[in-house]
Amino acid sequence: MTRERLNSEMSIKIFLDETETPRQWYNLAADLPNPMPPPLAPNGKPLTPEALAHVFPMNLIEQEMSTERWIDIPEEVLDILYRWRPSPLRRAVFLEKALGTPAKIFYKDESVSPAGSHKPNSAVPQVWYNRQFGTKTLTTETGAGQWGCALSFACSLLGLTCKVYMVRISFDQKPFRKTMMEAWGGKCVSSPSVETEAGRKYRALDPEMPGSLGIAISEAVEAAVADGTGGTKYTLGSVMNHVMLHQTVIGLEAQKQLAKIGIKKPDVVIACAGGGSNFAGLAFPFILDKINGADIEIIPVESASCPTLTRGIYAYDYGDAAGLTPLLPMHTLGHNFMPAPIHAGGLRYHGMAPLVSQAVVSGLASPQAFLQLESYNAAILWARTEGFIVAPESSHAIAAAVREAKKAKEEGKEKIILMNISGHGHMDLAGYSKFLNGELSDYSLPQEEIEKAKRDLEPLPKIV
Ligand SMILES: *Cc1c(COP(=O)(O)O)cnc(C)c1O
Predict the structure, then answer these.
(1) Which atom of ligand 1 is nearest to the CA of 243?
(2) Ligand 1 pocket member 393 (CB < 6 A)
(3) Is 7 or 69 the better-scoring residue by pLDDT?
(4) Mutate which of 140, 166, 244, 278 to test ligand 1's pocket (most atoms within 8 Å of Cβ)?
(5) Complete domains list, the chain, with CATH
(6) What pLDDT digit, counting tens, does each position of 377-424 carry?
(7) N or C: which end of the chain has fewer CB atoms below 10 A?
(8) Is the pLDDT reported for residue 56 higher than 70?
């Protein structure tokens, strides 16, 4: 099809080459209008770097606490990222046509990484900094399996051992994710497992329990600490400041790609948000533009079954179910939250990255929640127009972009919409199959659950 027939005056695939890659990460902590409340130790006092040293290497702890605006990406990390970065920016002209919208919809495609999502953008530097520090083994949790794959992949390239606790419901729904991890040399067990005290405790309560990210985190932290030699550390695929930092390559590339085709700024920036990392990755560089006066609407999109930002409480809470992590200032549904078994496994976490929460509290981002059926409908429309089969998490971003594009049509506005496709859905076909067979239904979190979260948070320190 010629460009004339596409009715498109601009490129629909915008690439950068390796020399145009961003060479620094952007740290939003340098620019937030209100400083973030500090993370707290279990005793309620601000957390010291030393208190994290039994689970994380000191070089990553320094990055976690840094307020430097720009942080250099190590050359050796770039050499690995070049396998798939810079990722393409595409224009969804076929979806635009189907919707008859005057909006132009652009999307970053993070599904092109070896593991199939944005997660290797942080897995590679995390493993690299751990190796610099002398770490031999890394433990972690994984929900849908994407982070476990990303970490296994990064560990295999950099020569570390990888142990993954995978939330049981996903372990059962997505058996091939475990095979992918094993192909990269990682070890993967179903959580709650019998290998840790935390896992055994939850199994004793209910042998059939589907598990949760909060429980899997408890297991992975316990396993890292249990190796008394210091050679085992823990990694997290989202939520923490340094993970948000590593993901900003996405938005920094997108800015260069839009500039290449003469677009100064998008009007709307959209990404799904589970723990917040792919959203932060795309959005934080644009939030800096917004802080500097640009008129941009920035939308993190979550699942209505796990509505952390739209209905959760902004408070100090633990990152895990057993209360082993520090207390983080974030939107939360309570660390005892048991998510509904929706298929967007990456959107089932009870908390949110403190940096993303702070951006929302400061009015720099305006979250929306979408139900499962509207999201799957958008994913099917996407598959039948753009062609790609996306991760169920990413379908939430598409659903929001479709709504924005329809709004632009009603208003007759030629808006520029930019979104992030966080991953492909090739390992998520069980969910697609259920949707196509009419077996899925909508699930919105009942208000009692929010009331229960409030009660669970009552004894914890308050944000002042
Ligand atoms: C992990 C994951 C998410 C959710 O995690 P964030 O940290 O919010 O990005 C979304 N999409 C995909 C494909 C994922 O793997």
Answers:
(1) 7
(2) yes
(3) 69
(4) 278
(5) 3-25+72-116+242-457 (3.40.50.1100), 119-238 (3.40.50.1100)
(6) 999 999 999 999 999 999 999 999 999 999 999 999 999 999 999 999
(7) C
(8) yes
